[in-house]
Amino acid sequence: MQFQFNTDAHIQGDEALSDQAEQIVTGGLGHLTERLSRLEVHLADVNADKGGADDIHCTIEARPEGMQPQAVTHSDATVEAALRGGAKKLKSLLDSEFGKLDRR
């Protein structure tokens, strides 16, 4: 599985953050990663230097093999919380989609 990580100009997107994001998202998805060809994570700080609650937006797009891409968005106060929330939403979405596919 390929992992792609992107940030906006207000979040320092270094190698350490990329590794942390990959670990959080793939860990949150668990066994479902085996059915994905690619994951794209996008982080953005919408308030920039102003701060505030829920100003970090995390968008995760998954490309399941043989299916259309699936995407979720989660906003939270910190990068880690946004990543964990996005991974949780994506896991729920993929569980549902794969469940429908497996029943056929």
Give me the strand/helix succession. EHEEEH
The side-by-side strand order for the widest beta sheet comes to 1-2-3-4
Number of helices: 2
Percent of residues in β-strands? 25-35%
CATH evolutionary superfamily: Ribosome hibernation promotion factor-like
Count of distinct structural domains:
1
Shape: elongated
Rg over CA atoms: 14 Å
Low-confidence stretches: none
Q: What's the helical proportion of residues?
A: 25-40%
State the major sheet: 4 strands, mixed
CATH class: Alpha Beta
Task: Please give the CATH architecture.
Answer: 2-Layer Sandwich
Mean pLDDT: 92
> What is the number of E strands?
4
List the helices and strands and how they pair.
Elements: E1 2-7, H1 15-29, E2 36-45, E3 56-64, E4 70-76, H2 79-103
Parallel strand pairs: 1-2
Antiparallel strand pairs: 2-3, 3-4
Structure notes:
Helix content is 38%, strand content 31%. With 104 residues, it is of the alpha+beta class. The protein has a single domain (2-103), classed as Double Stranded RNA Binding Domain, CATH 3.30.160. Helix 1 (15-29) links the parallel strand 1 and strand 2. The longest helix is centred in the C-terminal third of the chain and has 25 residues, at 79-103. The protein is elongated. The mean pLDDT is 92.
